[in-house]
Amino acid sequence: MSAEPRSRAQRRRDTEHRLTHDVDVWVASASPDGEPYLVPLSFDWDGETLLVATPAGSPTGRNLAATRTTRLALGDTRDVAMIEGEVEVLEIDALHQQQGDRFAARTGFDPRASATPYRWFRITPRRIQAWREENELRARELMREGRWLA
Questions:
Q1: What is the 3-state secondary structure (H, E, C) of 12-58?
Q2: What is the phi/psi pair of residue 7, to 5°?
Q3: Can you say how many angstroms the Cα of residue 78 is from the centroid of all Cα atoms in its chain?
Q4: Assigned CATH class of 8-140
Q5: What is the pLDDT along the chain (150 residues), one digit of tens a residue?
Q6: Which pTM value belongs to this model?
Q7: What is the C-alpha separation between 44 and 150, in angstroms, rounded?
Q8: How far is CA 43 from CA 2, 32, 64, 131, 134, in A?
Q9: So where are the chain's domains?
């Protein structure tokens, strides 16, 4: 028997907690001709956007730069948050040092020190859904067009 469904407000709090405390997110992208690609990447959340880094020449780096959209997944299949977002592409030296330092401290990885050319990808959520069980599917949408619903 599944637990009672959480309120939209509680699911928002749970999602924001996960964004604040999780370190890795699944990043789905597609090439301009529709070839899908999925990888886990470390991220930093500043309260409004997610920051990820990946090699500029990797499939994910090329896809995000070309399409400027992504879909992210946090959690597992019985407690998931799905985030659709717009992507801003930044060269590795474009961030203020404190932002790069924060990313490195949170994730344990500093792409600025890599010999491989990396880029930053700042993702602004446009739609967020979160649910645990079937009984939360009906009201799973927490953000629409970049605005929280609760």
A1: HHHHHHHHHHCCEEEEEEECCCCCEEEEEEECEECCCCEEEEEECCC
A2: -70, 160
A3: 18
A4: mainly beta
A5: 568 999 999 999 999 999 999 999 999 999 999 999 999 999 999 999 999 999 999 999 999 999 999 999 999 989 999 999 999 999 999 999 999 999 999 999 999 999 999 999 999 999 999 999 999 998 899 999 999 998
A6: 0.95
A7: 23
A8: 31, 24, 15, 21, 28
A9: 8-140
